[in-house]
Amino acid sequence: MELSHVVIYFFGYAILGYVCEVLYCSIGERRLVNRGFLHGPYLPVYGIGALVAYSVLHRFKTYPILVFLAGLVVCSIVEFFTGWILEKLFHAKLWDYSSRKVNIQGRVCLLNSVLFGLLSLAVIYIIQPRFSIAVQQLPARLTGVSATVILVLISVDTTVSVQRMINFHTLLQKAKELRLDWEERLERIGEQFVPSSTAYIEKELEHVRTQLRTAGRRILDAFPGFTPKNLEQQILQVQASIIQWRAQRKASRKNKAEKKRNDNE
After folding, report:
1. Which terminus of the chain has a smaller tally of CB atoms within 10 A, N or C?
2. Which strand (E) or helix (H) includes residue 61?
3. In the Cβ-directed half-sphere of 4, how many Cα atoms lie within 13 Å?
4. β partners of residue 93
5. 3-state SS assignment for residue 104
């Protein structure tokens, strides 16, 4: 295949993957979910997965079961290493299948792998034959220009999206540092009951949460399983510490009152 054709195939499958993801997730969430790390309506991992699967599987097209099984394995490997690379780059999981049965480190799960196998069958026997005919009928100049535009578009989108993720990750790191500061404040409060101190901490908690929601609204909406190892849980732990501290102070005051009453009697 010519390079320009490969780029167009990649882009077509990336768009098709985005549509499948949006439909699949929107039905489960019962609302429209805009999936994907990038801003545009395409998911490069599907483009890569489809091209890799086709390059490996097309020679076995006379064996549908083998195509299904091999597609299941190949696409799962692509998803696994894509997740691994993103985790190394951003120190966060953009998806997590740990709660699903039969998963590997939360990066791939049996259900998705089976769906990948079915999609591989569709690519080999239905989509690629028609897609190939349509692309080959395009004028060479048009395919060259289209491939260039696609590469520029995805390059710019990737650069902007990575910068957005870096900014979000920076905010997460700042919030983690604040969490340690909050816990130290709680320790310093000690036995002194200062409602204004805990109120101030709670106000800061909500402020950070608002900042995170604003900065990462696109990320958090596209990846409900996003776990920054795990900030929201850490914030909840701080809130739990405040609640526990208040309960202890209430119990302490109650015990002191009872002791004072018993001493008077």
Report:
1. C
2. none
3. 14
4. 227
5. strand
